[in-house]
Amino acid sequence: xxxxxxxxxxxxxxxxxxxxxxxxxxxxxxxxxxxxxxxxxxxxxxxxxxxxxxxxxxxxxxxxxxxxxxxxxxxxxxxxxxxxxxxxxxxxxxxxxxxxxxxxxxxxxxxxxxxxxxxxxxxxxxxxxxxxxxxxxxxxxxxxxxxxxxxxxxxxxxxxxxxxxxxxxxxxxxxxxxxxxxxxxxxxxxxxxxxxxxxxxxxxxxxxxxxxxxxxxxxxxxxxxxxxxxxxxxxxxxxxxxxxxxxxxxxxxxxxxxxxxxxxxxxxxxxxxxxxxxxxxxxxxxxxxxxxxxxxxxxxxxxxxxxxxxxxxxxxxxxxxxxxxxxxxxxxxxxxxxxxxxxxxxxxxxxxxxxxxxxxxxxxxxxxxxxxxxxxxxxxxxx
Length: 383
Ligand code: GLA
Prior knowledge:
- With 383 residues, the protein is α+β, with helices and mostly antiparallel strands.
- The protein is 43% helix and 20% strand.
- It is built from eleven helices and 13 strands.
- It has helices spanning 3-14, 87-101, 125-140, 147-162, 169-176, 219-237, 249-254, 261-285, 289-305, 312-323, 346-364, and strands spanning 20-29, 41-42, 44-57, 63-67, 72-76, 109-115, 181-186, 192-196, 202-208, 328-331, 339-345, 369-372, 380-381.
- A six-stranded mixed β-sheet has the order 5-4-6-3-1-13.
- A hairpin with a 5-residue loop joins strand 7 and strand 8.
- The longest helix has 25 residues, at 261-285.
- The relative contact order is 0.17.
- The structure holds alpha-D-galactopyranose.
- Alpha-D-galactopyranose (GLA) is lined by residues 33-34, 36-37, 124, 166-167, 169-170, 333-334.
């Protein structure tokens, strides 16, 4: 699918060509996982895969949507009571309603869209969809919403219309992405810095376990609750601790008998991860990829053993990375399936991919997918 084909589909369905085309990407995250809703730092970058939508205002005060990938269409009104039934349409509806809550109203429109960001692979296809619509509506209706608020609108859509209490990382990366740069984002203050990322002699590659990751009604929200419980216990003794980001391991140990083992393990991971990210950023500044890679492996270990968001398949992929000399590897994103992100020396790349593909297929009878990572720009008008 490309933009010309999308425009043709739009024309056939709605009887005229779209007035504009917008696109917004998925993301990777080098390190700093499950830290965003703990007020910590993350290090994501937008990728060259995302959602592209064709758009035109209509005269019927209704939203008409067509998902090319699902080959499904829907139609709904603009009021809170008009929530569509289709899961994918709720993301668009949520964006419209979150804009309305901020006093920004839109009129009826037609849109058709497709995506090339794999669904459920931990690459934030949903944030790409939210950001594409938030960005497009802001532009077409001249709503004057700043980019920070656009990202928050996507996040609020997840909270209020999808049921995932996510942090800000995915939507922020999708809106603020910049070619060749990662974003070091402080998720409490939303201060951010672009970090040029061009690891000479290395490649960054994703291996997709093809285990579907599904965050709605699932343990993601429970992870967040555990973190909040641990932070609240620490706050009783240390009022300055707003989020786990502010806590030390010593503070956590003080409350060991006041929280359950599970909450303790979750908090232990997060406190370690906040520090690991900062160490990895220091190492990146010195082009010290060996240290960055070491931190990535430590993150995987923590996500697997303490945060318990990995699975057999992803642990296996991580072991393959170790076996074939990959510098750094870890599960990426929310977890429960999806991809590993791998920092691998160019000279080891071919062997790693070939051997891992065979090993994985032998063990699980699925061929893993491989995506090279190209760090790209954020939400934009494509035409
Ligand atoms: C999902 C969420 C993000 C973040 C990651 C884990 O992608 O949407 O907000 O919490 O998981 O780092």
